[in-house]
Amino acid sequence: xxxxxxxxxxGGNNSLVFTNKMYVFLIPxxxxxxxLWIYPLLQLFYYSITDFNGINYNFNFVGLENFQRIFxxxxxVNAIGSLTVE
Length: 86
Known about the structure:
The protein is an all-alpha fold. About 55% of the residues lie in helices and about 0% in strands. The protein has helices spanning about 20-50, 65-70, 75-85.
């Protein structure tokens, strides 16, 4: 009788395992995501809790006062209402 060794198929479930080569492609994508998405989002939140006007870089921390002022204004509430109704 002829005994043959079974060979494992390449690919399959082994392709889901992270190898060192995968990190070479993953790290630049993560850096791209952090620099172009997460950093501006954090910067947006930081500027929203200050009195920064976009021109003068002398600004003070005001906390949630900006958000309070927006929702006390009737036009902002109307704008949000018209977006949610339709």
